[in-house]
Design brief:
Length: 447
Amino acid sequence: MRQWIKEPLAILAEGAEGGIVVEDGKIAALIPRGGKPAGPIDQIFDASCHVVIPGLINTHHHFFQTLTRAHPAAINKELFPWLRALYPIWAKNVKPEAFRQATRLALTELLMSGCTCASDHHYLFPAGLEGAMDIQAEEAAAVGVRMTLTRGSMNLSEKDGGLPPDGVVQDEDTILADCERVLGRYHDAKDGAMLQVALAPCAPFTVTKRLMVDSVGLAERFQCRLHTHLGETRDENEYCLEHYGSRPVDYLEECGWLTDRVWLAHGIHFSDEEVQRLGRHKVGICHCPTSNMTLASGQCRTKELEAAGSPIGLGVDGSASNDNSNLMESVRHALMINRLTYNAASVTHFDVLRWATAGSARCIGRDDLGTIAVGKQADLALYTLDELRFSGAGDPLAALVLCGAHAADRVMIKGAWKVEGGMPVGVDVAKLRHEHGQAAKAFLESV
Ligand SMILES: [Zn+2]
């Protein structure tokens, strides 16, 4: 089937003012202004009221945290006290059904904001939740969103001097065996994959050095990506110097993690030399502006990192530090916080849209996603400018970011519509809200 997405109001692609042709899940042609597709067309979608951008790609999240949003014990705190408030709650046995609801809700929220490919850094594996990655694979298929299953891990807990409680960590052999199982079962390295897997120790300081090193070996064997948290707060630099005698980036290098296979969440507190070193090795950085502002963590040096060679992607981060999963909102927040870091002229709406699309695709190693170009996957987000907030807007692409678009009218993934009229296809949103709300309530009452 050949579909012409015809003459959009605006589109984030050069030479596609007349629209794009989608065939077999891919972008088959770009149509210039006033042009018509060569060859027959089976279906025309009139996009004259739509602003079209590549589907947004979320490169950092913790879906389970939707169960503890705006938690009274954690609000108005910075990262370490925030973690100390929430870990005892998270440690109280997240059950598979609650985790399934959390996954379904976060994926649906992301999708409705215009996200077509998600990743979830899941690192809690209490007894009973060993199948967390399987639950996420099932839910991603049901919602129809592409996903990088990011198999997290922690093997240093309070008894070893770490932050996480003992009940949520696993031993090294169990972790590595499950990483291998999940890679074997779900990692599809081919173009157009709906599921891939990345290996993701929670932070270099919540796992042993051996687990950091062995994760690299496994990632090379399966050709997958590596992910972890780094440089989120100043406390982390101090903690690392005290416990390891080195700064986090030096420790990461010792573990063999300075490669283009790696993307890091946050990446805020780096020295000039570290920015250059990370860029030279093409280590990706997932910028999480909303979370960084909520926890007052600091400002990522996006422009310097990008100039040094690091891909910059965007992430909403977990739903206890955002506390929503709206990636389009984070695009706007990225513009705002980076204008404080730099200035109004050097950070534009094109920069932040690039980070959320092509930059995020590079972070997770997806050459087939992130831009509207011939041969790329047909993953698109379409927004109308009908709401009051857009009335009177001049530049439609700038308006998405500046006026604060937050809900896509249509989302296409692999050539199929997954959101129509602002609603996710095949998902009963009211039922989801009710069931997730009940699951969160039951979880909080059990702790
Ligand atoms: Zn995180």
